[in-house]
Amino acid sequence: MRDIAKLFITTIENGQPENRLDKIATEEPLEIRIVFEQHGKTIDRSISITMRTPGNDLELAIGFLFTESIVESYNQIKSIAPASNRPSCNVVRIQLKPDTTFDPELLQRNFYTTSSCGVCAKSSLEALRVSGVKKLDPDKLRVSPTIIQKLPQRLRNAQSVFSSTGGLHAAGRFDIEGNLLEIREDVGRHNAVDKLIGERFNVGQLPITGEILMVSGRTSFEIVQKTLRSGASILAAVSAPSSLAVQLAEEFGLTLLGFIRGNRFNIYSGQERIHLPG
Question: Which of 1, 43, 51, 117 is catalytic?
Answer without folding.
Answer: 117
